[in-house]
Every structure is written in structure tokens, then in C-alpha cells.
Amino acid sequence: MHPNPIFRQSSTKRDLDFAAQVGFGMLCATADSAQPPMLAHVPFLLSETRGFAELHLARGNAIVKARLNRLPAAIAIQGAHAYISPDWYGVEDQVPTWNYVAVHITGTLIRLDQGEIRRLVDELSDHFEGRIDGKTPWRTDKMTAGAVEKMLVQIVPFRFEIEDVQGTWKLNQNKPDAARLSAAAQVEASPLGLGTGALADLMRQTNVD
Fold first, then answer.
1. Beta carbons of 187 and 199 less than 8 angstroms apart
2. What is the pTM of this model?
3. At what angle do helices 177-188 and 196-204 cross, to 10 degrees?
4. What are the Cα distances from residue 158, in Å, to 15, 18, 26, 107, 130?
5. Residue 19: CB partners within 8 Å, gap ≥ 6?
6. Does domain 5-85+97-174 have CATH number 3.30.428.10?
7. Which of 53, 77, 177, 209 is 20 to 30 A (C-alpha) from 41?
């Protein structure tokens, strides 16, 4: 996370609301300090209390193969991001940078009983399918008898107990308003980044908390 405190003034609520909205991140867990960190890209569902997240992993994933019921872990959630050219500010003596939104949540990854897997898959699908306008949410009971059980045995349920939340909203808050707005106009049409239009909108908001 960027160390400049001006980029790290968002509230924990805003950071967790952002994480819940994205619902997808990079899980990093460590089973042995002598081994490299284990990484997985996972959809997740935050609890209403924002105290924990639930997710599942393929049985062949290295984190599952570690066969540990509790692991220190983190989930990095990436939002919109874009390259910023110094020419876009309209002021002298600037340097290139990259604007972005990201939230890191750290805590403990806990393996759940396998009997929780169907509930978890249905809750995840209800959550994401429910955000598709006009669509009846898909659920496991739409599958042929026996087929769902064969698939569910291949994935393992986990709970991620949240212990700390850190967010960075790097949106040129450290620049004069005119320079920030000038850069936002260029970012909106830039091919260098992801979700550049959304990032430009955030850059235009002077109050980012």
C-alpha cells in the first residue's frame, strides 16, 4: 500500500464496502516461512457484519494441500487503475505515476466442514446472480441429480476472519485541483489501465472518503 497518508484516509467502512462490491481478489496465505507464499484468485462473500468473508478453493489448490485448518492470510482487492502522464497535469516538474484503488484485508483463513460447501456455493451464486438485472438467480438445485455432488466434492469451503483493513485511494489528492481535473480528463480516454472511466470519476471527487 502507498505510504503517503493523503491516499489512505478512507474509512474502514468505505474500504470494506468497496471489497464487498468487487467480490473478487487475490488470496495470499503462508504455511511455512521457508516456502514461497501461496496465491489464489478467488470470489468471496463478505458477511453483513463485515467481520469475515467466505470463499472456496479447488481441492488441488496448494492452500488446500497444505492441510492446515488455520492459516495467516490476506486478500488484496484491486479496483480501477491507470497510468498518469506528467504532461496531463498542465504544470511543470511532475513525474509519471499510476493512480489506483486497492484494499488489503488480513486475518486468518479457516477451513470449514465440507458439509458447508453447498450452502456457500448457493450464497455466492445468489449474491452475484442477484446483481444481474432481470435474471432468475442460478442455484445448485437447477443441476441434474448427482451432478452437483460430483462437482462440489472438488472444492473446499473456507472462512476468512478479518483482523485488519488497509485501503489506498490514490487519486492525485496531492495535486492542485486544476491539475487533478486535467489529468482525470485524459485518464477517461486512456488505454493504459483498467476501469479508467470509473477512476476518472473518482479523481473528480474532491472528497474521497
1. yes
2. 0.92
3. 160
4. 22, 21, 15, 13, 22
5. 25, 46, 75, 77, 103, 105
6. no
7. 209
